[in-house]
Amino acid sequence: MRGGAAVKGEPAVRVRRVSRTARLLSVLTAVACVALLTAPLAFGADGEGIYGRTDDKVVTFAAFIVIGFFAVLVTVLSLLQIRLETRKERAREELERLRRP
Predict the structure, then answer these.
(1) Measured between alpha carbons, how far is 61 from 57 in angstroms, rounded to an integer?
(2) b/e string for 19-28 if b means 16 or more Cβ within 10 A?
(3) pLDDT tens-digit profile of 47-94?
(4) CA 27 – CA 21 distance, rounded (Å)
(5) How many angstroms from the chain centroid is the CA of residue 53?
(6) What does DSSP assign to residue 8?
(7) Looking at the DSSP assignment, which residues form a beta bridge with residue 2?
(8) How open is the CA angle 27-68-83, to the nearest 5 degrees?
């Protein structure tokens, strides 16, 4: 923008990119604030946390949930990688086809 009027091909508003360090610092600050705000809930009276009293059954089910989460995560990410690899191979074959005389 020069002289108050937008020049053809230039955006009307210039947006300055935020550096990676600044983004990382803001994310870490937000995580630290959330951790500090939720800490009193985790260390409730008589060792009770947010959930309440925990016994072996609760801990076992929580561990099963964690195991299931990672199994699903690995499966979904593997399927995503397979799909992206297939797409990459198709694009590579298309480029080779177009390059041939």
Answers:
(1) 6
(2) eeeeeeeeee
(3) 676 777 778 898 899 999 999 999 999 999 999 999 999 999 999 999
(4) 10
(5) 32
(6) T
(7) 5
(8) 75
